[in-house]
């Protein structure tokens, strides 16, 4: 493996490795709850807000509150004010894997010059339309294709992607069953 102690991908691995050790010693602090709120705007157009989460034993706030709008395309008879929720899943997967690649590269001393991913998800919409009860609602196949320029061999770059995939929370969420509870309260 190529190691370059001067690699600077902008990832503070010293803090990450320190957190790994500290939380291994105090595992209660490693219990995080990520959250988003979502508000209906009109038709299928909604807005999500992310501003806080629970972690390290206390409520935490992001430096900046972020909002994300979602809608459905004109193909579905909607206004197409924003991307679809399923496209956000692809965005999350790409963001998690690419961030992981940067962190792993930093830790291994590999200088990145560019990391570009194309994420595609195949879906038979007969499922979400209720037209065929045997067709699942979600993706039936997701592909992530990376183009990475780095000071490393092709084998080392493949190892970066493999390690990122191994540690990616979103990859895990997308590829493994997760318990989801939906409750409702009349406002």
Overview of this structure, please?
- The chain is α+β, with helices and mostly antiparallel strands and 187 residues long.
- It folds into two domains: 58 residues, no CATH class; 93 residues, K homology (KH) domain (GMP Synthetase, Chain A, domain 3).
- It is built from four helices and six strands, in the order αββββαββαα.
- The strands form two sheets. Strands 1, 2, 3 and 4 form a four-stranded antiparallel β-sheet that branches. A two-stranded antiparallel sheet has the order 5-6.
- Strand 2 and strand 3 form a beta hairpin.
- The model has no long low-confidence stretch (mean pLDDT 95).
Compose a concise summary of this entry.
This protein has 187 residues and is of the alpha+beta class. It is 30% helix and 28% strand. The chain starts with 12 loop residues before the first helix and ends in a 12-residue tail after the last helix.
CATH homology superfamily name of the largest domain: K homology (KH) domain
Rg on CA atoms, Å:
20 Å
Low-confidence stretches: none
Largest sheet: 4 strands, antiparallel
pLDDT averaged over residues: 95
CATH fold topology of the largest domain? GMP Synthetase, Chain A, domain 3
Note the overall shape.
Answer: globular
Distance between the termini: 58 Å
- Corresponding CATH architecture of the largest domain: 2-Layer Sandwich
């Amino acid at each position: 493996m190529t190691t370059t102690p001067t690699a600077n991908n902008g990832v503070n691995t010293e803090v990450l490795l320190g957190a790994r050790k500290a939380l291994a010693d105090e595992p209660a602090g490693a219990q995080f709850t990520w959250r988003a709120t979502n508000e209906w705007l009109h038709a299928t157009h909604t807005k999500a807000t992310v501003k806080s989460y629970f972690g390290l034993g206390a409520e935490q706030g992001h430096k900046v509150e972020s909002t994300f709008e979602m809608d459905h395309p004109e193909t579905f008879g909607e206004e197409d004010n924003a991307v679809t929720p399923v496209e956000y899943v692809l965005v999350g997967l790409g963001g998690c894997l690419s961030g992981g690649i940067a962190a792993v590269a930093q830790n291994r001393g590999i200088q990145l010059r560019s990391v570009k991913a194309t994420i595609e998800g195949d879906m038979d919409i007969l499922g979400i339309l209720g037209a065929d009860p045997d067709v699942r609602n979600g993706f039936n196949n997701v592909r992530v294709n990376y183009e990475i320029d780095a000071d490393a061999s092709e084998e080392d770059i493949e190892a970066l992607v493999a390690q990122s995939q191994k540690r990616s929370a979103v990859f895990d969420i997308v590829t493994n069953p997760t318990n989801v509870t939906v409750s409702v309260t009349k406002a």
